Amino acid sequence: MDSLRYQTGFGNEFASEAVAGALPQGRNSPQRAPLQLYAELISGTAFTAPRAENRRTWVYRRQPSVVAGAYQPYEQPWWLTGAQPGAVIPPEPLRWAPFEIPPQPLDFIDGLRTVAVNGDVEAQTGMAAHVYLCNRSMHKRALVNADGEMLLVPQQGRLVLRTELGVLEVEPGEIALLPRGIAFRVELPDGDSRGYVCENYGALFRLPELGPIGSNGLANARDFQAPVAAYEETGEGCELVKKFGGHLWRAELKQSPFDVVAWHGNLAPLKYDTANFMVIGSISFDHPDPSIFTVLTSPSDTPGTANCDFVIFPPRWLVAEDTFRPPWYHRNVMSEFMGLVYGQYDAKPQGFRPGGASLHNSMVPHGPDEEAFERASSASLQPHKLENTLAFMFESRWRFQPTAFALNGGALDRSYAQCWSGLADRFAAGKP
Known about the structure:
Strand 11 and strand 12 (about 165-170) form a beta hairpin. The chain is mainly beta. It has a 9-stranded antiparallel β-sheet with strand order 1-16-20-13-10-15-8-7-28. It has a 6-stranded antiparallel β-sheet with strand order 6-25-24-27-22-21, with no helix packed on it. The protein has a domain at about 275-415: Jelly Rolls. The protein has 2 helices and 28 strands. The N and C termini lie far apart (about 60 Å).
């Protein structure tokens, strides 16, 4: 994709028109919109949200989105929403081998598989962690998620995301953030594709506050890219699949939903290259909390305790003295769903593979496996760079509930706990 097809910034007021003169001047909704277009407002937050947090976009389109047929239920039993009442969650660490892409033709909608869920979509809290396992592009179809925004983390294969506001191309190492309520289609230029999805029902993702870090560091707003206006020239119909209240519905459209000729606002699809993340770390001793790797955060009603954080572990230098450099053994109040895009994760050099996942719920102990512990405990503490690696974490204040697909789908590593079995009691009383 040509970089000229993107606008840069997170939360910026963007303006874009595919045809000169399509954007009205001075009024959002004039009596007659330019070029005989229809004005339509998409509000991502309540009208009265504080100005700094308000997200909305005006679109100028060939037909308003109310032009749709009646909806019928759409069966996709693998896409689940919210914790199921009465389900029992085991208090143990879970890990999955790379999820296999099925041989039958599956596009993004049909290839979505829910791995873990929490929260309540009607209360607008929590999230779901999915994987997408697909091998064909969405053809004459579009998806609207009215339940939450979707954060896509490709692991295998590029995605071309055609949205109402324009087109984004996203490859492994990059992420895409699709606002709640925006129609999109997923095309697969490389064929078989696999990746991860965070479906966020809570507060919109935003850049975290930097506090004592100061004005520079972590993810910079300028490195997020929004599309420019690009409407689809087609008279063909389209199947619109909508997720609403935890269920999927379908309707037949006589026109493409990608008919926005111009738009302006600050609610937009975004992409971000994780290579632009400015890593912060210790240059003296000890291991900083993983919160310093936060790219995006969805806050909850408890300050400092996120509904969901998106955290990455990218290539970086390790230089701390007299320090155990992988993550320490720990139990957190937060719950952690992890995935690996490429390379090795330093705390699990063998068992955690690209395309797989792990889940460590609230107060479930976890940390380096035996191999990682032995190596890190005796390593020469010279400056060392972790290269060719990208792991990430969806971290939530709510406990995750693994799904039947996660527990019985064939990828669950039932011997995961054995990776710590060799950590013997080495206590040596009276010895330095």
